[in-house]
Design a protein that fits this description.
The protein has about 600 residues and is an alpha+beta fold. Helix content is about 35%, strand content about 15%.
C-alpha cells in the first residue's frame, strides 16, 4: 500500500489516499505473456505497450512524431492525422520484420488501428502545451498559456484599463465635390477605432476614430486625451432618438470623472510597438504603467490577455457595423454574396455617418445593462464602485493633458540685422515669427523651444527660450496661414509640393490647394489620401465648434430640390433607372432632424 500511495500522479503530486480507492488503476496494464491472437481476433490486450517496451527507441521516435508541429523556417509536414501516424508506425514495424513473422498487429483484422489511436490520444493528453501547438497552432498554444486572469487580479476601479485598436468591419465612401457641379464618391477602405476600457466596470473611458491606413502614435495619444478631458455628446443627424437614456462617456456623465487617472494600461504586442513613444506620456500625464508582452503576463496578439476589450469589439460589430449590409464581416464568408463597396457607393454611406454611428454605439454601450455587472450598466457600476473607494481618485493636471498631443522641438532663430531680416524660425515646413521675436536680434543663431500646442491647428505655436522665458505665440506665414490644419496634414502637403505633384500660387493657401487637388483626382483609381480625410475632419470640427451644429444636419437642411449626380457616380449605380436622380438621392440621405419644441 505504501508503494502505491507514493507513486506520482499525472498532476505532479503523489497519489496519496487516492491510490486506495477500490478498483482505482494507478498504472497502465503491462502484458507479461506472449501475444497470441485467436481466430476471433482476441488475445492482444496490451500488445501495443508490450511492443513499445521491446523497442524503446521506436517509442521515443513515435512520441516525437506525434508531438511535432513542423517547422516555420523550412518546408515540413504539418497537420498529421491519426491515419498518417498509424501508417508510419506500420512501416516502422515492417522494417523490424513484424509483417514477415506475422506478429501483432499484422495478424489482426484492423492492423491495430484502434490501439494506436488510443496511444496517440494519451500522448497528447500528457503534453498539453505541445498538443495545443499540434492541434490548434500557435494561437491555441498562446491561449492555453494565457490563463484566465486569476494571477493578475484587479481589486479597484481605475487600477487597470485595456487599450486596443480595431478596424471597422465595413466599407464607407467619401463625397468629393466637383468643379463642374455634383459629387463623385470614392471608397475609404480602412477606418480604425482606438478604445480605452476600464476593466472593473467595463466602461469605455475614451476612444479615437482614425482614418489612417495604420494606427499611429498620434491616434493613441488622442484616445488618451479624450479619456482625460470632458466629453460632450455630439448631435446626431440620422435620428432624434439614437441615444439611449443616460448614454455617455464617464467624463461627460459627471464632473468627478473628468481627468481621472489609472494605474496600468494593458495593450497587445501589435499596439505595444506603436506605444513605445507613448510610455513617457502615460507616466508623466497619467501616472500609468504600460503593460505589454515584454514586461508582463500578456502575449502578442492573444485575445485572452485582454478579454474585456476583445468582448467589447465583438459587441461593437454584432450590435452595429456587422448588422449593416455594407459590412465586410469578421471573415470572407460573412459577405454572403454581397458587394460592400457597391452598397456603400449606392447608399452613399459616408465616413461622417460611420463616425456618428460609432459615437452612438459606444455611448449606448456604456448605458446598456450587463449581466456580469449585476444587470447594471457600465456607467452605473462605475459610479457604484467609486462610492466604495477608501482612497481618493487621482486626477491629471489639465495643462499636461492639453499638451498630450503637442509636438516640441528646438529651432534655430534665423535672420537678424546682418541679413536685413527680422528674426524668425523655420518649423515643420513653415516660417514663424511675431512682434516679440522680431525684436530679439540677440537670439539669432541660438536655439529656442517651439511647441505646437493645438493639435488641429498648427498656424499658431508657443515659443520660449531654452531658459524658459516666454516669447509668446508665433504665427506662420503664407501659404500655411489661412485654413486650420495639423502638422501631419502639412507634412503630407509639403511632400506633394516637393515632388511636383502640387503647385501653390503666391497668395494662395496650401491646404485649400491640396483639398482641391484631392477632389479633382476622382477619375483615377487611387485611394483617398489620409491627409485629405484628416484635413476634411479638421475643417468640419472647426465649423461645428463655431456653429454648434452637426455639419451633416446643416447639409441636409440645405439640400436643394435637385442635386446633380455626376456620370462617374452613376456608373456605380448599376440597375438604377434614369429618372431616379434627385428623388433617389434624397432617399439615400437621412431625413433632417426636427427642432424640438421648448
Amino acid at each position: 500500500m505504501k508503494t502505491r500511495c507514493l507513486l506520482i500522479h499525472q498532476d505532479g503530486e503523489v497519489w496519496g489516499w487516492r491510490a486506495l480507492v477500490p478498483w482505482q488503476r494507478i498504472s497502465d496494464y503491462q502484458r507479461k505473456t506472449e501475444i497470441i491472437v485467436d481466430k476471433f481476433g482476441y488475445g492482444a490486450v496490451g500488445a501495443l505497450n508490450a511492443t513499445l517496451n521491446e523497442h524503446p527507441g521506436l517509442r521515443e521516435k513515435f512520441r516525437k512524431r506525434i508531438l511535432s508541429a513542423g517547422t516555420i523556417r523550412r518546408i515540413s509536414e504539418i497537420k498529421r492525422n491519426k491515419y498518417d501516424h498509424w501508417r508510419w508506425f506500420l512501416d516502422q514495424l515492417r522494417q523490424l520484420g513484424y509483417e514477415r513473422d506475422n506478429k501483432w498487429p499484422f495478424n489482426t483484422k484492423r492492423l491495430g488501428y484502434s490501439s494506436i489511436c488510443t496511444h496517440i490520444a494519451r500522448v497528447l493528453r500528457e503534453e498539453p502545451e505541445a498538443a495545443a501547438l499540434v492541434t490548434g497552432g500557435s494561437e491555441a498554444k498562446k491561449k492555453l498559456l494565457s490563463g484566465d486572469g486569476v494571477d493578475r487580479p484587479v481589486q479597484r476601479v481605475f487600477e487597470r484599463v485595456e487599450m486596443d485598436a480595431h478596424k471597422l468591419d465595413g466599407r464607407f465612401s467619401v463625397l468629393l465635390p466637383q468643379p463642374t457641379g455634383g459629387y463623385v464618391q470614392k471608397i475609404v477602405h480602412r477606418l480604425w477605432v482606438i478604445v480605452i476600457l476600464e476593466v472593473i466596470s467595463r466602461c469605455v473611458l475614451g476612444y479615437h476614430f482614425s482614418m489612417r491606413k495604420e494606427v499611429s502614435k498620434t491616434d493613441v495619444l488622442r484616445a488618451i486625451k479624450t479619456a482625460l478631458t470632458r466629453w460632450k455628446r455630439p448631435p446626431i443627424s440620422f435620428g432624434e432618438h439614437a441615444y439611449l437614456s443616460g448614454a455617455n462617456l464617464p467624463s461627460g456623465d459627471s464632473e468627478d470623472f473628468v481627468g481621472v487617472c489609472w494605474d496600468q494600461t494593458s495593450v497587445d504586442g501589435a499596439l505595444a510597438e506603436t506605444c513605445k513613444p507613448v510610455i513617457r506620456v502615460l507616466a508623466d500625464a497619467v501616472g500609468s504603467e504600460l503593460i505589454q508582452p515584454k514586461n508582463s503576463f500578456s502575449a502578442r496578439r492573444s485575445k485572452d490577455d485582454r478579454p474585456f476589450i476583445e468582448t467589447f469589439f465583438r459587441t461593437l460589430g454584432t450590435r452595429g457595423f456587422q448588422k449593416i449590409s455594407n459590412t465586410t464581416g469578421g471573415k470572407p464568408s460573412d459577405k454572403r454574396g454581397r458587394n460592400p463597396e457597391e452598397i456603400a457607393l449606392t447608399s452613399q454611406f459616408q465616413i461622417e455617418y460611420a463616425r456618428e454611428l460609432l459615437t452612438v454605439l459606444i455611448a449606448n454601450y456604456n448605458a446598456t445593462p450587463h449581466s456580469s455587472l449585476g444587470s447594471r450598466s457600465p456607467l452605473e457600476y462605475l459610479r457604484f464602485r467609486v462610492r466604495q473607494l477608501d482612497q481618493p481618485l487621482r486626477y491629471a493636471d489639465p495643462t499636461t493633458v492639453a499638451d498630450i498631443v503637442s509636438f516640441r522641438k528646438q529651432c534655430i532663430v534665423r535672420g537678424g540685422f546682418q541679413q536685413g531680416r527680422r528674426p524668425f524660425i523655420n518649423f515643420a515646413h513653415g516660417r514663424y515669427t511675431n512682434d516679440v521675436l522680431a525684436q530679439r536680434h540677440d537670439l539669432v543663431g541660438q536655439k529656442i523651444w517651439v511647441i505646437n500646442h493645438i493639435e488641429d491647428d498648427s498656424r499658431i505655436v508657443r515659443a520660449s527660450t531654452l531658459g524658459g522665458q516666454s516669447l509668446g505665440l508665433l504665427r506662420v506665414s503664407a501659404p500655411w496661414n489661412k485654413l486650420p490644419h495639423s502638422l501631419e496634414v502639412r507634412t503630407a502637403i509639403a511632400s506633394y509640393i516637393s515632388q511636383g505633384k502640387l503647385q501653390v500660387a503666391a497668395g494662395h493657401d496650401a491646404v485649400e490647394a491640396f483639398v482641391n487637388y484631392s477632389e479633382q483626382q476622382t477619375d483615377k483609381k487611387l485611394p483617398v489620401h489620409p491627409a485629405y480625410l484628416e484635413a476634411r475632419r479638421i475643417l468640419v470640427d472647426v465649423a461645428e465648434a463655431v456653429t454648434e451644429q452637426s455639419m451633416l444636419h446643416v447639409a441636409n437642411e440645405r439640400l436643394p430640390a435637385e442635386v446633380p449626380v455626376s456620370n462617374a457616380h452613376s456608373r456605380h449605380r448599376k440597375g438604377a433607372s434614369s429618372h431616379s436622380g434627385s428623388s433617389s438621392l434624397k432617399r439615400r440621405l437621412p431625413a433632417p432632424r426636427k427642432a424640438a419644441n421648448k
